[in-house]
Amino acid sequence: MDPLTAVTAGRAAAGRRFAFYLSVQLTSVLAPGLVAVTCLTALLLHLRDPQHLGRAVENAVRTVHGPAMLLVDVSWLAAAYVLGYVGRELAFRVLGVAEWLSRRHRAALGALRTDLEAVYGTPALRRCLRAHPLLGHLLNSAGHAATPSQNMRQPGGALRAGNAYEAFNYAKSWLRTHSPGLAPDANEAEINVLLSTLLPLVLGTWTLIALAPLGVAVATAVAVAAGAVTALTFAQVLRLRRIECWEALRNLLEDHEMRLAADRLPTAPGVSADPPDPVAPSGSAEEVQPSGAA
């Protein structure tokens, strides 16, 4: 890749990354934070006047008017952002404990190279790793425990430090810069959004039980339903976290093979491509040097 193309690609990737970050913040921090702040406000007004919630809301609205309304709106948004961020972070902490307890999750991270080789074959994996030697080094030690230095640089989102994380981050960064259509951004966004719903779910359930005239049986059913939704959400997030790392590495390997295939295509109609090099059998040392990979 020539320097000018690299600079242009880097600027485009930065713009896409900022747009993605902004959308994630709006959907997984601000929106659930607004729901949470509204629920807390309703609960506080209910405590102030348990018998007449509507009157308490009306009195609160009457006391705020003119320039004070702007200050309340700004404070409301700020409180929503902070509460939404804290709620999502707490959910990530709980998720980290769940992953630490899950032997299935740890085993999935430790077998990344073996799985790639089993699905795509040894020749394809070797061709990709010749173009990405750093990734090959990380995958060779993906199952090793994190060093004390890596633990001090604990990544966000309750991700576990170690070479498996570094390999995932390398693949994700490459795809975002050079092949954004294959970047695993959809999984990352879905994980953030799903976890951010847990705090509004808890507060919304509490508000419904506290304010609505529900009987004991109905209130219990509502609480059980909220607990079931929370469990299903965590199960889905655990599944997404297992496949997020795999999809980043898989897409990087497929990106490399597609670039090689594109180089073998005819350059003009009616012009036949050069015959492809014979594919070496599994375990062979014969390799194809990538000519189109950056």
Can you give a write-up of this model?
The protein has 294 residues and is an all-alpha fold. 76% of the residues lie in helices and 0% in strands. It is built from 12 helices and no strands. It has helices spanning 3-48, 53-63, 67-101, 103-110, 112-120, 122-131, 133-140, 148-152, 163-178, 185-196, 198-211, 216-264. α7 runs antiparallel to α9 (163-178) and α9 crosses α12. The longest helix has 49 residues, at 216-264. The termini are close together. 21% of the residues are buried. The model is unreliable at 279-294 (pLDDT under 50).
Question: Layout of SSEs?
Answer:
Elements: H1 3-48, H2 53-63, H3 67-101, H4 103-110, H5 112-120, H6 122-131, H7 133-140, H8 148-152, H9 163-178, H10 185-196, H11 198-211, H12 216-264
Name the average pLDDT.
78
As a percent range, the share of helical residues equals over 70%
Percent of sequence in beta strands: under 5%
Distinct helical segment count? 12
- Tell me the Rg in angstroms: 26 Å
- What's the order of the H and E elements? HHHHHHHHHHHH
Compact overview of the structure:
The chain is mostly helical and 294 residues long.
Keywords:
294 residues, 0% strand, 12 helices, mainly alpha
